[in-house]
Amino acid sequence: MELTNKFILDACCSVKAMWYNKNHPNAVYIDIRKEPSGFLGYGRKEELNPDYIMDFRKMDFPDNTFKLVVFEPPHLSKLGKTSYFRKKFGCLNAETWQDDLKRGFSECWRVLDDYGTLIFKWSDSEIPFQKVLNLIRENPLFYNVTNNKSTSVTKWFCFMKIPIANGGTNFTSAFDDGCKLGREKTLKEIEDKIQTIFKEELGEEKRLGQYSSAQDISNKTLKRFHEWLQQEVSGANKNVIDKCILNGDAI
Ligand SMILES: C[S@@+](CC[C@H](N)C(=O)[O-])C[C@H]1O[C@@H](n2cnc3c(N)ncnc32)[C@H](O)[C@@H]1O
After folding, report:
1. 203: confidence class by pLDDT, cuts 50, 70, 90
2. What is the Å distance from ligand 1's center to 17 Cα?
3. Is the separation of the CB atoms in 56 and 32 below 8 Å?
4. CB–CB of 60/9 below 8 Å?
5. Higher-confidence residue: 248 or 91?
6. How many CB atoms lie within 10 A of CB 58?
7. Is 14 close to ligand 1, i.e. is its CB under 6 Å away?
8. CA 28 from centroid of its chain's CA atoms
9. CA 8 to CA 32: how far, in whole Å?
10. How many angstroms does the Cα of residue 18 sit away from the middle of ligand 1?
11. For 118, phi and psi rounded to 5 degrees?
12. By the 8 A CB rule, do 144 and 156 touch?
């Protein structure tokens, strides 16, 4: 796979409707399918022609590859088999969409470089923004606000992958480093454990992205997670866990 001078990833490009230059030389476009010109019907000429047919839930790119990742997955789960919207934008699987988006976001974050930007685009015509944001362990930096409550709206959420060692306040980096060291634990097992510890320590349940500041994540809480990883995850590299998870100053 040739990635020289490729700094930008579109993780599900469809017909690249939002792109100014639909073949930007520094971008890599992926989608789960390819469709010929005219596939939309109605005399339209668009084609769906990604550089690689790839699943955003399991990408073939190395960690930290891109400076900018844009992620606009399908927004709708209730579409007829032959609907125009399904053809153009794809369709969420009504049974698995939450897990699919979670995995997609996690992969986007993995292939994003440190200090890289992730743009997540969502329209709330069927599923509210908060329901989707609850699947994401990070908090956005900002998004476009609107007062228009009468119709569905599209929002662009901007995230940055700031490493914890450089003052980042996001918990995912530490969390993911812990997970990488403990491949035999599933992400779900580790996530559940963290939630349990946080709930016990803080007495209330929040989603992971909300435990992101020094006030929320006490050293005591992190120490408990650290100790659990040390006990449960064989092969864990103590130095890295210490650096990433126990560094109260950094968090
Ligand atoms: C809302 S459209 C993207 C629109 C695009 N941003 C544009 O400007 O035209 C979502 C796309 O995600 C693709 N998709 C759905 N599931 C996917 C997956 N698991 N991996 C990669 N692409 C996927 C669909 O095929 C569809 O083309």
Report:
1. low
2. 11
3. yes
4. no
5. 91
6. 9
7. yes
8. 17
9. 18
10. 12
11. -115, 130
12. yes
Identity of the amino acid at 105? F
Task: Give the integer Cα–Cα distance in Å for 135 and 223.
Answer: 25
Residue of the nearest CA to atom 15 in ligand 1? 90
| Measured CA distances, 177 to 83, 110, 182 (Å) | 42, 11, 9
Q: What is the pLDDT of residues 13-50, one digit of tens each?
A: 999 999 999 999 999 999 999 998 888 888 888 889 99
- Has residue 245 got a pLDDT over 50? no
50 lines ligand 1 (CB under 6 A): no
Token output for 222:
């992190």
Map tokens 């946080």 to a residue: 198
Looking at residue 153, its amino acid is V
Residue with tokens 């073949």: 23
Q: What percent of the chain is predicted at pLDDT more than 90?
A: 39
Three-class HEC string of the chain = CCCCCCCEEECCCCCCCCCCCCCCCCEEEEECCCECCCCCCCCCCCCECCCEECECCECCCCCCCEEEEEECCCCCCCCCCCCHHHHHHCCCCCCCHHHHHHHHHHHHHHHEEEEEEEEEEEECCCCCHHHHHCCCCCCCCEECCCCCCCCCCEEEEEEECCCHHHCCCCCHHHHHHHHHHCCCCCHHHHHHHHHHHHHHHHCCCCCHHHCCCCCCCCHHHHHHHHHHHHHHCCCCCHHHHHHHHCCCCCC
State the closest ligand 1 atom to the C-alpha of 100, by its place in the atom list counted from 1: 19
- Assessment of whether the complete model's pTM goes beyond 0.90: no
